[in-house]
Design brief:
- The structure is a homodimer.
- With about 240 residues, chain A is α/β, with parallel strands linked by helices.
- Chain A has helices spanning about 25-30, 90-100, 120-135, 150-155, 175-180, 200-205, 225-240, and strands at about 5-10, 20, 40-45, 50-60, 65-70, 80-85, 105-110, 145, 150, 160-165, 175, 185-190, 210-215.
- Chain A folds into two domains: about 5-70, Beta Barrel (Ribosomal Protein L25, Chain P), CATH 2.40.240; about 80-240, SPOUT methyltransferase, trefoil knot domain (Alpha/beta knot), CATH 3.40.1280.
- In chain A, strands 6, 7, 8, 9, 10, 11, 12 and 13 form an eight-stranded parallel beta sheet that branches.
- In chain A, α3 (about 120-135) links the parallel β7 and β8 (about 145).
- The interface of A and B includes residues 102, 174, 177, 219 and 241 of A.
Chain lengths: ~240, ~240
């Protein structure tokens, strides 16, 4: 029987070791997926690759698994951050899910002048990226950073990291052209603005920063989540090549 | 006052002509956007560019507008078709909306062996693409084709049109590499498989067709809607350059 279910777990994973699942993972295995002792699952922790594990015992609130075999070895990932102004709930959830599928390594909600959403449910975001990582066969889970104001994000920026700002006002070259002429560095970040766009003062301030590159995705006005998915897809396609 | 609202309309658009809106557009203008006589809107029909128009009269079920000025001229668009196996409702709606934002010219629901969704609400799809086109500042609305079985789509295919099949089993080169070596032709099509992937027999049959090119979006398993958005974004980025 093939193991189909993938679970993310914090513990170290190594041959012959045993790990315990938490109560919600146990519930999922037993009551949703109808697996019991002897069932096989895949485990990953973002460090030790993907392991096949066998269910050894299940209790009401936990399950113990024994690690059988390394199925896929951990591989290095290009570091790509996505900074985004939170949009309404489904948009933010969609950004988290799709960005995870597209290999984002860090997700950072950034509050801009025109950001309408005041509260970001960070726990929900973290749960979303774990679920998406489990389903898309990633060996890692993106890091979710605490929301911060754009001005603070910029003043604390590591200047060696290029920040590609998707500018709806058309102030930049096409993203693909930028990446062709100046291929992705070892670590980069993409910033997507809010639904209403960046404030003029924000664009002016960013224009003065040496690490900022403005980029465009064309003439059409994209929703924030479309812009996030499109720019990550293009980045991955051209960084990989 | 600037016209903010964009509406798609079938009528010809020309200087000094008058057009009538249908009842749902009239309702939207009057009751949602609170516009009345003298208010300005933007109109487009996919042929004659974008026009500023003034509301001349409003009735219970219709509104008459007078065309003032051509604001943006019609431009040629690269023809890019998206064929997709319908997924559950929100996924299909999302594909329609995002594909429109990313400039798809034709949307074609295709029924494959592993397609779980039997019924596609074509009227809903058509309404979705109009709404998305109005919001993203496109000058056209994608054509929505009637759902058809994959085998029929393939047997009636125009062989001059390249069909790029996104193959989750990894049977193709990265999409960006394909487009770099063999840039987009004057008209192309992308096919996205269903959630469960294509059947082996479908892949084998397509592999024998001269117009089919298999392509990959990397190792991660993308949801159908993510694959649609990602491949269109990459296509637009590399076709434009």
């Amino acid at each position: 029987m093939d193991a189909k279910i993938r679970l993310f777990i914090d513990d170290d994973l190594a041959a012959d070791s045993r790990v315990a699942l938490n109560s919600s993972q146990t519930h999922y295995l037993k009551n949703v997926m109808r697996l019991d002792v002897g069932g096989l699952v895949l485990l990953f922790n973002g460090r030790d690759g993907e392991w096949r594990a066998e269910i050894k015992s299940t209790g009401k609130k936990d399950a113990v698994l024994s690690l059988q075999e390394l199925v896929r070895a951990q591989v290095d990932e290009a570091e790509i951050w996505l900074l985004f102004a939170p949009v309404k709930k489904t948009g933010t959830n969609m950004i988290a899910e799709k960005a995870t599928e597209l290999g984002v390594t860090h997700l950072w909600p950034v509050i801009t002048d025109h950001t309408n959403v005041e509260r970001v449910k960070i726990d929900r975001l973290k749960a979303n990226v774990i679920e998406a990582a489990e389903q898309c066969r990633r060996l890692t889970v993106p890091t979710v950073l605490e929301p911060e104001k754009l001005s603070q994000v910029l003043s604390g920026w590591n200047e060696e990291r290029r920040l590609i700002v998707m500018d709806e006002t058309g102030g930049g070259d096409p993203l693909a052209e930028i990446l062709r002429h100046d291929p992705a560095a070892s670590f980069e970040a993409i910033l997507i603005g809010p639904e209403g766009g960046f404030a003029r003062s924000e664009l002016d301030a960013m224009g003065n920063l040496p690490f900022v590159t403005f980029a465009s995705l064309g003439d059409r006005i994209l929703r924030a989540e479309t812009a996030a998915v499109a720019s990550l897809a293009i980045w991955q396609a051209l960084a990989r090549g």
